[in-house]
Specification:
Distance between the termini: 13 Å
Number of helices: 13
Shape: elongated
Order of helices and strands: HHHHHHHHHHHHH
Strand content: under 5%
Helix content: 55-70%
Length: 290
């Protein structure tokens, strides 16, 4: 088995913007990105009117109180009540504080809110340090997998994204990273159009900044492919995987684990499309080099 398999895997599945099938922009099915990939400018917040970078112009997508309720719910309110009662009992002249009594331990919710409050006081409520806290907590919540954590993750990502985008524009690395995470979160929630919106913008921005063959661009094509596959749009999934394969091969060579993983996906898509011979060829290559 030679590199011919790899060449066919990416070349056959992809087209240029001049192709008869509409080209690479069809992978995203997002009109603004369609235009951008074929050379028309994509409107960016980097070109926003003067003054938009001022933190006072940030419009929060969800209040912090809502995010806290989503995260802690009744447990937060219960903890507040217990802490309040405990503090009052210590301060009461008729109930002296017992020697050696321990204060109630902080929950993850109260620690989070205290960190946000302290950082907001030091840097401003719509500052990058606060956005960084929201982003980190959102990624942590995404890893938990339960519906409550997923809801909070979405809210915090939207809040962080609003701050990053307004302060630093669409081409900022953290803005792009937050777009990618929003794409993941919306895919998990079944909001495929919103997910593609975020991911297609992210892939366009990374291509413009890093070049089409950068592995960071391939990473996003893998995510776009997964969404199309979830929607049973297998031809689009195949083309997106081919884009990812091309970038990974250029960066890492033909036998890198990332290349092999994308090849496995391409073989699976070919099988689902009924292209059994192509799937068999790719699978043989994968077995030889995995």
């Amino acid at each position: 088995m030679t590199a011919d398999v790899l060449e066919r895997s990416d070349v056959e599945a992809s087209r240029s913007c001049d192709g008869d099938d509409g080209g690479l922009f069809r992978l995203c099915e997002f009109s603004a990105i369609q235009d951008a990939m074929c050379g028309n400018p994509l409107e960016s917040r980097d070109d926003a009117p003067e003054g938009e970078g001022d933190p006072s112009h940030v419009v929060s997508s969800s209040s912090f109180a809502e995010a806290l309720r989503a995260f802690g719910g009744d447990e937060v309110d219960m903890e507040r009540s217990k802490n309040h009662a405990l503090r009052n009992s210590y301060d009461s002249p008729t109930m002296p504080r017992l020697s050696g009594a321990k204060s109630m331990p902080s929950s993850p919710y109260s620690e989070f809110t205290l960190t946000v409050a302290a950082t907001s006081k030091a840097h401003g409520s719509h500052s990058r340090p606060v956005a960084d806290i929201y982003y980190d907590k959102a990624v942590e919540c995404m890893a938990k997998g339960d519906s409550q954590s997923q809801r909070l993750s979405m809210m915090l990502l939207e809040e962080a994204f609003s701050i990053y985008q307004t302060l630093s524009g669409d081409s900022d690395n953290k803005t792009i990273l937050t777009r990618i995470q929003l794409g993941r979160a919306n895919q998990t929630a079944g909001q495929y159009d919103v997910a593609l919106d975020h991911l297609c913008t992210a892939v366009y921005m990374r291509e413009a900044l890093l070049g089409e063959l950068h592995p960071g661009v391939s990473e996003i094509w893998v995510l776009i492919s997964a969404i199309h596959r979830d929607r049973s749009k297998l031809e689009l999934a195949l083309k997106a995987s081919a884009k990812a394969l091309t970038g990974y091969r250029d960066a890492h060579g033909d036998k890198h684990p990332l290349v092999i993983e994308v090849l496995k996906t391409i073989a699976q898509i070919h099988t689902e499309l009924g292209n059994l011979d192509k799937a068999a060829d790719i699978t043989k290559y994968v077995r030889l080099h995995a």
